[in-house]
Input
Amino acid sequence: MARYKATIAYDGSGFNGYQIQPNGRTVQAEIEKALQKMHKGEHVRITASGRTDTGVHAKGQVIHFDSPLAIEPANYRQALQVMTPLDISFLTLERVSDDFHARFQTKSKEYRYVVKRSEVFDPFSRHFALHYPHPLDLEKMRAGAEVLIGEHDFSSFCSAKTERENKIRTIYEIEIMEIDHETIVLRYKGNGFLYNMVRILTGSLLDVGNNKISVSELKKALEARERTALSSKTVAPQGLYLWKVAYETRETM
Output
């Protein structure tokens, strides 16, 4: 039995999220279906760095699984690419040590959120970016981002449905990137993120940029540690990408 690590990308617009659901198409189910065919009906469970919600994309999701098949990693990657749908891509696949764990050994995660500022709605980007045709002061957004960087209790910036009791997380970086005159990208890097946290952070920073809330009000909401302290909405999922996952140690065999 050997353990394999794969980095995958997927277009989340056609999935009911990453994790297997009783009803609905998911990334995990499609990959496990392909592995089951390769293993002649034997179910192979995959483990991811974390789950993504309905409509959320991934550029660098990481999974691991165990397999008894003696196949070269390059051939394994190619076989899985052929056997999975076209909205999933296997970017890399490699043999790793048996104690590697895609979820528990994460050092940091990077998410990016894409915002289209064009006045006219673009139907071709509707699954991949948030249409936001409103004025934005990017310098105010950057000032708001500074408030959020560091170790904090992010209870005010996660869904009320969040099950975890410990809501302390560390954000290492928040970057507001102006790609062109129509597109901005909000880049978040941290040691972990709570349920809907990136989408709520994005909604809050957009509100700061649009003068709906001030930087001081954002700071007060953070200190309140209560979702009701913040009026900002959870922005739509289609602009969100799990961009990169980093690990503590060198796990390749």
User: Anything to note?
Assistant: The chain has a mean pLDDT of 95. The radius of gyration is 19 Å.
